[in-house]
Design a protein that fits this description.
This protein has twelve helices and ten strands. It is of the alpha+beta class and about 375 residues long. The chain has a four-stranded antiparallel sheet with strand order 2-1-10-7. Strands 3-4-5 form a three-stranded antiparallel sheet. A three-stranded antiparallel sheet has the order 6-8-9. The radius of gyration is 19 Å and the shape is globular.
């Protein structure tokens, strides 16, 4: 089987996994990941449900499979009818219906991913409830998370006070917030007038001023998690490549990120990082910023394919594993790893065939 055919099959299997694996609970919410041991879903995540909504819409547009559309709608209706916290106007970190939740937090990044998922559903269906919910949350994000510099990464609920930093990148402000700010650009396109666009510009200024320090200097295994976040910065830049400073930051950033990935991968490698970088590389090549050589693209696509689970167990089959340490797979099958990997492989196929369209709004 050719690599092109393998990528097409991987896309089909990933779509199958989203609707058949049980990663989407009967409520419509989507679990953060499937735990291979003890063989069960982890808690429902609002962020991952938002990612799933965007992914299911994208997959439906490719295939026309009504099951994908229906699953996407279930995710969207769960978010606006069961997960949204009306008192804060935000989405909490997790939404376990049995009460088993992590600490009561709302993350800036998570809420933006939900907004983009709701907007994807609105563009597909025209249902006004998705647009109005996205608008409310986008406005609440700008109001509640704004800080003196950039945006607070997390708020405690119900107080809506900034959560203290604990050393993790997800609890600290950073350049990765730029991908979250794409939600405001999409809202600006739906509601002309510039009110939402200014928030993206604020995030862009902060990201450009801070991104060089985000990864540190040493390519050690611990940097792999920060590489995942740094890729969000690179993805957020894709909406501003008409600006010289953004083109330069993207050029510098992709080279540095790939160097660190390859240095650390023999010890610890994440599927999502490799997939995120291939997606950005395809965009940058299409914009004439950083060339993507065919041999290198094929190598990256082949490495991503290694992460797809092909065991007959329906909870595994077609999903993409989170990562590996050395030759040992980590025991998680992830919705966002599956989404990023499937899209990276399809973008590479389109790029190879000369039909890739560099539309940043399509990026999951």
């Amino acid at each position: 089987m050719s690599l092109d055919a393998e990528c097409l099959r991987a896309l089909e299997l990933a779509a199958h996994w989203f609707v058949e694996s049980g990663i989407q609970e009967p409520s419509g919410g989507v679990a953060r990941y499937y735990q291979c041991e003890p063989a069960r879903n982890y808690r429902i995540s609002t962020e991952i449900t938002g990612y799933a909504a965007s992914t299911l819409v994208w997959l439906y547009r490719l295939s026309g499979d009504e099951r994908l559309r229906e699953a996407g709608l279930r995710a969207g209706h769960f978010l606006i009818s069961r997960a949204w916290d009306a008192s804060s106007g935000l989405f909490p970190f997790e939404c376990a219906l049995d009460g088993d939740c992590a600490e009561p937090l709302a993350y800036f990044f998570d809420n933006a991913i939900v907004v983009r998922g709701l907007l994807a559903l609105w563009k597909l269906t025209g249902e006004p409830q998705f647009l109005s919910a996205a608008q409310r949350v986008g406005a609440a994000m700008a109001r509640e998370f704004r800080s003196e510099v950039g945006f607070h990464p997390a708020l405690r609920l119900p107080e809506r006070l900034p959560a203290p930093s604990d050393g993790r990148w997800s609890r600290s402000p950073g350049c990765y917030h730029l991908k979250a700010a794409l939600a405001w650009l999409e809202l600006d396109q739906a509601f002309a007038g510039g009110a939402f666009r200014q928030y993206y510009r604020r995030a862009l200024e902060f990201a450009l001023a801070t991104h060089r320090e985000f990864l540190g200097e040493r390519p050690e295994p611990a940097v792999m998690d920060r590489l995942h976040a740094y890729c969000y910065f690179l993805e957020g830049l894709l909406a501003a490549l008409d600006q010289p400073e953004c083109r330069q930051a993207a050029k510098e950033g992709i080279v540095r990120a790939y160097g660190m990935l390859e240095a650390v991968a023999p010890q610890f490698e994440r599927c999502d990082v490799r997939a995120q970088l291939l997606r950005v590389r395809v965009f940058l090549d299409a914009q004439g910023i950083v060339p993507l050589h065919p041999e290198e693209a094929e190598r990256q696509a082949a490495r991503i394919l290694e992460f797809q689970a092909l065991e007959p167990d329906p909870r595994y089959y077609g999903g993409f594993r989170f990562g590996r340490r050395g030759s040992e797979w980590l025991p998680f099958i992830n919705p966002y790893s599956t989404a990023f990997a499937a899209q990276a492989l399809e973008m590479w196929r389109a790029h190879r065939a000369g039909r890739f369209q560099s539309v940043w709004q399509d990026l999951i």
